[in-house]
Every structure is written in C-alpha cells, then in structure tokens.
Amino acid sequence: MMKYFHEADCDARSSSLERNFSASRSNVPQIDVLAGATQGWGAEFGKMLRHGARIGSAAPRVAIATSEYEAQGAGTRSSPRKDAPGGQFRYDPPFIMDAVSILKNHGEAVKAYFGTLRGRYSDAPPRLLDAIEYSLTAGGKRVRPALILESFTACAGGRPEGPGRASALAAAAAMELIHTFSLVHDDLPAMDDDDLRRGRPTNHKVFGEAMAILAGDAMVTIAFEILAIDADPLAVPALVRELASSSGPQGMIGGQVLDIDGENQQLSLPELQRIHRMKTGALLTASCRLGAIAARQEVHLPLMTDFGRHLGLAFQIVDDVLDVTSTPEQMGKATKKDAGKGKNTYPSLMGLEASQREAEHQLNAALASLKPLGKAGAGLAALGKFVVERNN
Ligand code: IPE
Ligand code: IPE
Ligand code: MG
Ligand code: MG
Ligand code: MG
User: 159 and 153 in contact (C-beta within 8 Å)?
Assistant: First the structure.
C-alpha cells in the first residue's frame, strides 16, 4: 500500500530525508556540521550553531577536524583518491559539513519566505493559491535553494548574512518556484503522467488539470516578480537573465521538449547528455551561478559554472538510477516507470553500474572545480556529495 504524507508535511519529509541519507552515507566522514568560512575558529563555531549543529556531539569531533586542519597549515587541501575514476584528484575541503543540516536550514528559510505569498497575493483566487502552496510546501529536498545560499556564502567570503543576502534569498525562493512549476507540469498526463510527487498525490490529481497548468504558470510569474521586488536593484537584471535563460527554451523547458520528443527512440550518449544538461543541469548550474551574482562576485562565475555543470549531470544520472533501484516510499514519487515510458536514461543506455560510476566521475570533477574556494567551498562540496549519495 502506497504511503502518503498528507498532514505530516515538510517535517516528515525532512526526517525521511535525514534517515535515508544517513543510511546511505557510510563512506562520508562523520563530523556533524561545520560552516565553510574564511574566518577564525570562533566565527566558525558561531556559524556552526546557526547551521543547527548539535553542540554536545559535534564539538569534540569538530575540535579534531580543526587541529587536523591547522596541522596542515593550509587553507585548502586537495587529496588524491586512489579510487577516483580516471586518476582524478578529488577535492576534500578541510571542513566537513553535514548536507542534511544545510538542506534543512536553507529549506526553512525558503519555507518562511513562501509563508509571505498569501499576504502578497491576497486578491488572487484562493484556490489558485491553495494549488500553488500544495506543491510548494510538500517538502522537496530544496537542493537548488541550498546551492544558491551556499554558493552565495562561499562567494561572500564565508558570511551567510553578508551584503546581498536578500538577493540570494529571493533567488533561492524564485528558483524553487521555477523548479516546482517544472515538476507540476512534468507530472501532467500530457507529459510523464504521474500520480505521486513529494509524497503526495500530484497537483492535477487534487486540483484538476486546468488548475495544475495555471498554478504552474503562476509560479513562473511569481518567481520573476519576487526577484524583481526583493533583490538588490543593481543585481536584478543579471539575476533575472540567469533565471530566465536557464529555465527557458535553451534550458529546462528546451530539455523537457527533447526528453518528450526522444521517447521510444534510441538516442546516442551525447544526445542523452544534452537532454540531461538542459532539463535538469541548467537549473542546477544556474543555482550555483545565482549565488555568485547575488554576492556581486562575478569573478567566481566560471568556477560555479563548472561545478554546476558536473553536478547537474550527476543529479539526473542519479535520478535515472533511483528510478530503477528505489521505491515510491523512499522517493515520494513513482519509480520503475522510465523504461515503460520509453525514456532515454543512463541505465537504459549503459546499465546501472556504469551509470553509478559515471555519477561518481561527475561528482569528482565537480568537487575538483571547487578547489580554488578553499574551505569556503565546504558547504557546496557537502551538497555535491549528497546529490550523488542520496537515496531519495
Ligand atoms: C526532481 O528534482 C526532478 C529532477 C530534476 C530529476 P528533485 O529530486 O530535486 O525534486 P524535489 O525538489 O526534491 O522534490
Ligand atoms: C524531470 O526529469 C526534470 C524536470 C525538469 C522536471 P524526470 O521526469 O526524470 O523527473 P522526475 O523523475 O519525474 O522527478
Ligand atoms: Mg520528465
Ligand atoms: Mg517525470
Ligand atoms: Mg526521473
């Protein structure tokens, strides 16, 4: 019997996220939380608390991590991993952060932001707002907002509250709106025709197709409206451009078109990569770039682009793998559907094992691109590892 999470809402989903991730990360160093920063240890600890560390268990192990770091006497560390495919170097930042805590904290910030929508749109038809809130608050992982806020922190010299925070938060909410719109439409009968999403019946199952289409449309307009109103006016043009180009005909929407057009056709690997980079990679790459733009640190854009491109491809490869290996209870959406729909996926093209290796390979390349950030890249590195090691 399928298990839905009607009332339990975000909390149940985030604890399920924590449970699933904990079970899947046995190879990740077990240090609770550390905030990436370029400041001293006192500031690190303060930020660690803001990130929600459990002091009792975290402090002793944190101290070990710090002395190890100081013994190395360097701001960055690049350690070769013998198991890294292709002899790549894998960048392991000296401070280890806990991806689940990062996702939870940034997720709460975005949820609070969404709490303002009813007040802002008080003249809108209430049922439209119900439909929007239904999908928005259903408890997704919030990977894209977390990437934006961590990329912002990394680019702002390790200061999560630094100038530009309002822009980063608006971009995080706007990106999650665009992503949620893409899911609502992706699930429609005319597209992937799914009944379950984020642990709940899909939007069109509850509100009807017309309302699901319109709720998705409104999510797009709200995304750009809040960005235009809430972000730093000097950053707005670049933020809007980034969000529009990554979601549009040459980004996510274009990728969705190629995905649908490619059903029941045998595509080549480069063709499949192109679809994945567009339908999923574009928004993930933009998330990393938006943090740099919000911080007005465009100098970091090449690095963020590189990180996001590898991570974006890895994300969809893992999504394809989980469709085969996971369950609806774990994923909060249907599984074992791609093959029946004639979808082009990594497992269908190269098998499960090779797909998993390719996701690891892309993760290693993503992590290597963070190296110039030093310890400020720790949060992004943790999110990168989460994307590949998750099981939901
Ligand atoms: C699902 O994205 C759609 C893909 C791009 C594969 P997520 O796995 O991030 O979905 P949520 O936001 O956690 O529900
Ligand atoms: C969808 O890819 C990517 C989007 C842009 C929504 P999938 O169709 O594989 O995503 P899921 O598996 O339904 O979440
Ligand atoms: Mg799809
Ligand atoms: Mg789908
Ligand atoms: Mg999928």
Answer: yes
Residue 71 sits in a domain whose CATH number is 1.10.600.10
Q: Please tell me the pTM assigned to this model.
A: 0.81
- Give me ligand 1 centre to Cα 159, in Å: 28
Q: Which atom of ligand 2 is nearest to the CA of 279?
A: 5
What pLDDT score does 46 carry? 35
Average pLDDT of 33-50?
Answer: 32
Q: What is the pLDDT of residues 316-347, one digit of tens each?
A: 999 999 999 999 999 999 999 999 999 999 99
Residues 378 and 95: beta-carbon distance below 8 Å: yes
Say if CB 97 and CB 379 are below 8 A apart.
yes
Residue 49 corresponds to which tokens in the numbers above? 């608390």
Range of the domain at 84: 7-389
Looking at the structure of the chain, the number of domains it has is 1
Which numbered atom of ligand 2 lies nearest the CA of 337? 12
Closest Cα to residue 316, out of 282, 354, 365? 282
Residue 154 CA to ligand 1 centre (angstroms): 24
d(C-alpha 298, C-alpha 304), whole Å = 10
Residue 92 covered by a domain = yes
- Residue 2 inside a domain? The answer is no
Q: Is residue 234 part of a domain?
A: yes
Give yes or no for a contact between 312 and 277, defined as CB atoms under 8 angstroms apart: yes
The verdict on residue 1 lying in a domain is no
Nearest Cα residue to 224 out of 206, 236, 208: 236
Q: Given pLDDT bands bounded at 50, 70 and 90, which one contains residue 11?
A: very low
- pLDDT-based confidence at 269, cuts 50/70/90? very high
Give the ligand at the shortest distance from the Cα of 255: 2
Beta-strand (E) ranges in the chain?
Answer: 78-80, 89-91, 196-197, 200-201
Banded pLDDT at 391 (limits 50, 70, 90): confident
Distance 208 CA to ligand 4 centre (A): 18
Report the number of secondary-structure helices (H) and strands (E) in the chain. 19, 4
Distance 60 CA to ligand 1 centre (A): 35
Instruction: Considering every ligand atom shown, identify the ligand nearest to the alpha carbon of residue 316 and give its number.
Output: 1
Q: Which atom of ligand 1 is nearest to the CA of 197?
A: 14
